[in-house]
Amino acid sequence: MDTYLETERLTLRRFTADDADLLIELDSDPAVMRYLSGGSPTPPETVRELHLPNILAGYDKWGGDLGLFAAHEKDGGAFIGWFVLRPEPQGPLDEVELGYRLRRAAWGRGYATEGSRALLAKAFTELGVRMVWAETMSVNRGSRNVMQKLDMSLAGTIPTPSDMEMVEGSEHGGVRYEITREQWEAQRS
After folding, report:
1. What is the DSSP secondary structure assignment for residue 176, as one 8-state letter?
2. What pLDDT, on a 0 to 100 scale, did the predictor assign at position 19?
3. Given this model, what pLDDT does residue 72 score?
4. Range list of H helices, 48-177
5. 36 or 115, which is more confident?
6. 95 and 61 in contact (C-beta within 8 Å)?
7. Quick one: average pLDDT of 68-81?
8. Residue 66 phi/psi, 5° resolution?
9. Model confidence at 52, in pLDDT bands (50, 70, 90)?
10. Sheet holding 174-180: strands in order across?
11. What angle do CA 152, 156, 162 make, to 5 degrees?
């Protein structure tokens, strides 16, 4: 396994060309996709022909340091989902997005916070990142709670993208949270 990061309970690794089925299964759960597509699954051909090639290209683009990373439980090795740490497509490398998508079986176990906390530490101590941001729908209380546990600050509201207007709660828009390296360091001292 090409380990990118380890936490107490998780191993994060780079995806490979053989991982399409993991992504297809994750995106086929209506509960997982609730705040992304209104519960509609991602078509398997979209995962195989677009999403996975883009994930793999990201490793080349960012030297393997940034991108989307498969998450597995250390105890037993089960795939639980993925975490993302990457800049906007044409954005600066020192401003990166933090996010995750986890299988329902992994919800409520603290994995989102654990993996995200470790990624923040890596971003600020190893990767030269200046600021980390995360976005979610206003009504996605679970993700907002994780951002708050990470000591990220609510930076503002964002409009709902047109391709998400069918999602329950879309009329409330989204929220953006941020944390800078200086804020993160101050919380650790």
Report:
1. E
2. 97
3. 98
4. 52-61, 111-125, 141-149
5. 115
6. no
7. 97
8. -130, 160
9. very high
10. 3-6, 10-14, 67-73, 79-86, 95-102, 131-137, 174-180, 153-158
11. 115
